[in-house]
């Protein structure tokens, strides 16, 4: 019973302590009465009263009386007494009462006791020195020496206190710190105080002590203990420990997890300054924790909500908690009323009830105590949140850290906007730039906020650092906010700092800030060359500074290595010098890493200069030099983003350096599998603009793009199609996929996409009626938005479309007449490409096989009809043409205007807009295109003169513009010049690059000569020479009828006869650009040119590059030229007499050989007289007719090396440029039979039957060898 009474008494006393408020006076009085009754009854327990007494004041006064002022008396004092004096002196009021020289006397007196000082006594002395901010060098030196002697005897608390004093006093004894930290770590088992760890860790980061061994040892020892006892640590300890570890670049998952745990569970105790430091340190190491970010964001939101409620109710502070909802926060006053009513009811119950019911009352109070505690905790948290101040710097740091961690919480950013606007004057320049950067990264474009930021930054523009200024400009540009006043101030400040202010240390730029300035200036639209020249000059200066820094680092490192290798005793001064050099090296390495001019910076500079359209010669040379150096010497690797942007920037700058592009193309081929689809599209577009084609890269890129075609946007698709059309790479399967994806996804088109897709699909000859119907609708919608270049390209693409439809209908007609597969080319090929084409009347899909043409020919529909009517007069062809006319698609030929009614309507509208808007601003390229369109319309449409008058007048004006080309030889290719030389040698006199409207005809035949026998010393019989001596004939074309080709003197002397050629002949040299890549099919551009020239009465002879490249020596090229001569004779067979060129048949055995018999020559003469027409149609094979062995050997010698070369010579030629290792491997492979050369080899046993055969079987517009 007694024990129960005692417990009850103790409980009442506890309740008295808890309820010492005004609201609980009644409860306290009742409890006091009951305690008095209980105490009066029990005489054994007596009340003991404790009177409070402060010993400090008394002790100070007593000790002050014992302080001597004289040095002699101070010397008589003991060690403890002097230490007590140090304590008294800490109080400034007491110190002022003492004389001025007292401290110096005190320091002199302590010197004799230094060797007998204990560690905690040393700390006391240092503490007073730190408080008084007095530094006595002699005393400090003696203390340091004493610490070096007894550092092992220091305990953990004294070490931590001493480190704390060092940080405050900014004294940096590195050797002592290292030794004391070693003793601290050795005695770590006895330490349980968090602040001790804090001081040891923080001193290394604060003084930037470069000692990796000690830092690693501290990290290994301290982190497990910190993680184990993390909940014991205060917010101050955790922030300092984590910040210092991050600064020293030492962290792991255990530490990060422990810090996050402490922050989340004790977040109501943290200040916003501490939260900002912790979050910023997490952002530096790149460790993202969503729970931590969410807890900090919630804390900020609750703080902003309390501010709103305070302003609404007019109260200075209002409690709010992170766990409470906004509805609960509004009704905090009602919660307080409920608690007060609850307590009053309990008091009334206690007055009425007897003492016997104490147990029940205690139980009820214990049950309801938890509710009261929870309410009080909420009130305490709200009070703590109210008392915490949210500073502008903390806001900027937190938001910037959230952006770095990629935690995009729009609510926190939006709720802080009013706070930022109201307190914008309190933000520093650094915080202003950080705010702008954060809001630009999250893409929150609040006009009021950014206006305030711009105005405040203009006011403080001189206080900004270079990094902050560049960051501010870059963030405004990222949101496309082009504030003219702000950017004028920024540009002026940049110009001042880069010219006059470059002398000052604070105004020195780093490479990152220069890169951001270049990007922002180009995005704003600044096109002042002076600014970009200054930017370029500052960049070069900075690069030279970095080079000097690197050289100094190398020299210092070498000196350090030499100093370490010397086996001699170093003095203290040498040790200090080594330490200083180590620290300098550490700093310079950091500076070099920050200012590293890598490929990302190069790409941004190139893109910014190309965007501003500034072609600075020195800049282009510098960029090409840097890229070469980095790739060839250093072999630096480019990131995918920098690679794509660099190539795109170089194309815009138009830097013509093939070596750079070869290096970048090699890099693209290596990295193509890791590139993103949009990056591949950008690289393809840039290479197509540069006209750099790589089959391997293009093929692989199309494979990757076709696999990821669903991830591509419409702009990427249009760019890829446009680049393929520039490459002339015709991949019909990919184009079919593109149009399918466009139909499925229903993309939103813009004018550039429409223009690019229509140009590329028509140029690559891909026909699909529904796709073009949708494109025509888009063209009609964006008709008035196209610029001059786009309108001219669209108008030019319409002629591709018209001709493509004709080709397609012709293919359908031939398919209907013949069951075999349509071959648009003349000859077949093994590789076939199948693609799906739909008819106009929505018929089921049909597969059409297109085979590449070895003879490099595509017949148009009109060409076929001409050939059927003029050349071939057989009954089969007549029947086929009759069937074609009866078919419905053949109606296109009769009434093309009716068939293309809708397309012509759009076409006329485009011409009208081009005429009205841009007739005075047309570029030369667009005039060239319009001249071709004019020629095609007049050739294609029979009712051209019934077209609108504005169209005819517009094309008439375009037709009158004439382009003057002075040096045609420069424009012609090497192949063209070579062919021209051989044709002149044969006797085909011609003109090169003859202008015919917009076209330049390669070779136009002027006249023919028959003096080839005199040039090449062809030996004929005497009779043959006598008969043909009088026949010196010149055939000139109709245009030269009135002109004198040969002078009268030579005419009379050599009996020259002039005759006329009735037909105009053009020899077209077909290079690579006349064919689609990796195929033998002609491009639509080449087909249209052929079609127009034929319509205007030209007879065309084609020389494809595939055939000319096979003629590798003089003899074969000359034979090929003779064959062209024969083609010309065949075309003009009505007017040319074969007698004038009989020596072609008589000299069958080749050049420099005698004819066998006179009878053979006379037989040939009579044979040609009888059959003159057959002569023109026959081929001219060169055969071995002689039977003697000598002539056979001579003929074998005259055979080209390409046919007589044996396997051994091929093998020796291949291993010429190899090294010894490769040569041995190739020889072994040849011995084993793994390396064979079965092509182009003639066996020595067999005789060659035919060397070269130039056939003229079809003798149409193409040549077949």
Automatic annotation (TrEMBL):
Residues annotated as domain RAP: 1065-1123
Comp. bias intervals (Basic and acidic residues): 1184-1197
Comp. bias (Polar residues): 318-332, 1153-1165
GO biological process, one term: regulation of mitochondrial mRNA stability
Region of interest called Disordered, as start-end residue ranges on this chain: 311-340, 1153-1197
One GO cellular component term noted in the UniProt record for this chain: ribonucleoprotein granule
InterPro entries documented for this protein: FAST_kinase, RAP
Molecular function as annotated in GO: RNA binding
PANTHER family xrefs: FAST LEU-RICH DOMAIN-CONTAINING (PTHR21228), LD45607P (PTHR21228:SF40)
Protein name: RAP protein, putative
